[in-house]
TrEMBL record:
Parts of the chain that traverse the membrane: none
Domain NAD-dependent epimerase/dehydratase per the UniProt entry, residue ranges: 3-205
Family, as annotated: Belongs to the NAD(P)-dependent epimerase/dehydratase family. SDR39U1 subfamily.
Gene3D superfamilies membership: NAD(P)-binding Rossmann-like Domain
Pfam families from the UniProt entry: DUF1731, Epimerase
PANTHER family on file: EPIMERASE FAMILY PROTEIN SDR39U1 (PTHR11092:SF0), SUGAR NUCLEOTIDE EPIMERASE RELATED (PTHR11092)
Domain DUF1731, residue spans: 240-286
Protein name stated in the entry: TIGR01777 family protein
InterPro entries noted in UniProt: DUF1731, Epimerase_deHydtase, NAD(P)-bd_dom_sf, SDR39U1
UniProt superkingdom: Bacteria
């Protein structure tokens, strides 16, 4: 199978390439010129893509939504790296692929302190919903009798790197803890399950439409903070006031101070068996992986 991966140099992309390169698949990574791609991947530009026949597209591209304040310029960059790029990739392909697997996020649902969201729950309007909806619509435009489209709505992906790496230093110094009262929901998923679900989606035609990629164990942010500190053998009792987060990050602080309870209903219907369904075990596994990688 000839597979095109966008976002090939990102956190999920690097893990996915390692998982796929030992198979009989031919991997292509969409990049700018002179950008190094992972081993076993052939780099292609958008122009070069017009001459390739691709069987499957795995669309991981998208700038980190939590990397900076949501200024008008930043919002445009987030839109272009998701929506505009998705449209450009699909339009560049000379033939429709058999499968498109495109990322989205649980931000699609908006935030709420008590509501529980599955793939068919009405979302709450707001910036993250609008961005994810436009991203999903761009991917779904490829859907036809020839092309199956699966939309994976990711929770916070935990692994050796990514979001967890950015949290690590404060927790190591004992400054990690709940944000505000920590009562908001924290939908999470282990990187191993993300990669396994992507690969399963490649090979199982029942994986189509929106799919929540989150652990079946729903936890609140204060529970996550305590479990992460425990995995690092550190305390987690210093709260960060919401007002401080708002002052530091503006509108973007809602990613850190609010959340949504999301359940993986479609994965449960598809009888997917999670590798890491428990948060404490997942965090301990990640810390052990980190130790092993530095051994």
């Amino acid at each position: 199978m000839k597979i095109l991966i966008t976002g090939v140099t990102g956190f999920v992309g690097r893990h996915l390439c390692r998982a796929l390169k030992s198979s009989s698949n031919t991997l292509y990574g969409l990049t700018h010129k002179n950008v190094k791609v992972p081993d076993g991947v052939t780099a292609v530009t958008l122009d070069e893509l017009k001459h390739q026949t691709i069987d499957a597209v795995i669309n991981l591209a998208g700038q980190n939504i939590a990397a900076a304040r949501w200024t008008p310029a930043r919002k445009q960059a987030l839109y272009d790296s998701r929506v505009t790029l998705t449209k450009a990739v699909l339009n560049a392909l000379p033939n429709p692929p058999k499968t498109v697997i495109s990322m989205s996020a649980v931000g699609y649902y908006g935030t709420h302190p008590t509501r529980c969201f599955n793939e068919f729950t009405q979302p709450i309007p707001g910036y993250t919903h609008e961005l994810c909806q436009a991203w999903e619509e761009a991917a779904k435009s490829a859907e036809s009798e020839q092309t199956r489209v699966a939309i994976l709505r990711l929770g916070v992906v935990l692994g050796n790197g990514g979001a967890l790496e950015k949290m690590r230093l404060p927790f190591l110094f004992g400054a990690g803890g709940p944000i505000g009262d920590g009562e908001h929901w924290f939908p999470w998923v282990h990187i191993d399950d993300v990669i396994n679900i992507i690969i399963t989606s490649l090979n199982n035609s029942e994986y189509r439409g929106p799919i929540n990629v989150v652990s079946p164990e729903s936890v609140k942010q204060k529970t996550f903070a305590k479990a992460y500190a425990h995995s690092l053998k550190r305390p987690a009792f210093i709260p960060t006031p919401k007002l401080v987060m708002r002052a530091l990050f503006g509108e973007m602080s809602e990613l850190l101070t609010a959340g949504q309870k999301v359940i993986p209903e479609r994965l449960q219907q598809l009888h997917y068996s999670f590798i890491h369904p428990n948060l404490t075990e997942a965090l301990m596994d990640i810390e052990q992986q980190r130790v092993n990688s530095h051994a």
